[in-house]
Amino acid sequence: MLRRIAFVIFFSSVALNFAWLGFMSFDWKIIPAALIAWYLADALSGVIHMYMDYRPCTENVGLGQLFFYEGSRESEEYLSMRRAAMARISFFERVVFDFKNHHPRPLALGRRSFIYQTTSIMVFVFPLSVLLNIVCSLWTLPSWLLVGLDVLLLGMILTQYFHGTLHRDDNPWIIHAMRKTTLLMTPTMHDIHHATLDRDFATINGWSNPAVNIIFNYFKQQGKMDRSGLEPN
Length: 233
Ligand SMILES: [Zn+2]
Ligand SMILES: [Zn+2]
Fold this sequence. Notes:
This is Carotenoid synthesis regulator CarF. It is a multi-pass membrane protein. Its main location: membrane. Residues 95-213 form the Lipid desaturase domain. Belongs to the fatty acid desaturase CarF family. The protein is mainly α. The protein has one domain. Helix content is 67%, strand content 0%. It has 11 helices and no strands. It has helices spanning 2-19, 30-54, 63-67, 76-87, 91-102, 106-111, 114-138, 143-165, 173-180, 187-196, 209-221. The longest helix is centred in the first third of the chain and has 25 residues, at 30-54. It binds zinc ion (2 copies). Residues 102, 106, 163, 166-167, 190, 194 line the site of one zinc ion (ZN).
């Protein structure tokens, strides 16, 4: 219930940021601004995904046992192990674990509710949305800038939802239409990440994957991307 109330407040803030667009006049620059923002949202999804995949989990708190558990994940034994392990780590650490846990069990993300997929993102994006509310109430931003910021905000909020659609067959028509225009990536493109775990981290449209791959390879050469970080102990 508390989570639903938080979502209503969050989306009211986001809706207010979009409502300011109603007071704007048309400017051709809003089109490149929206496309650049869509690219930036994709790049953010890739860089954050890359960091979460390779950041080592806290050791010896039961995350390894959860990750490699071979029985049913619906069983009381697994659920109580999960509750105990999650109680020992921070909210951020839970998100890190979820990223790693997604690799061997990708379909689970597709089955999650929109609220589950978006809660961790809301925690980080809510302050940014409120900041934009305040800026817009004090100043009149150029329309191209407001469109860009709104598109970036929307891309960040929907990142894990879009990621979930890549692991599910049953999706709304708009997802399929956006894939045809390359505004969203296809499951085949995302499969490359799951097959390698060392490239193509972006999960919205994949436009930024060449750049994010360069960043990844740079850190890998510096010895910062050890594959041991991909699995908890
Ligand atoms: Zn990954
Ligand atoms: Zn995935």
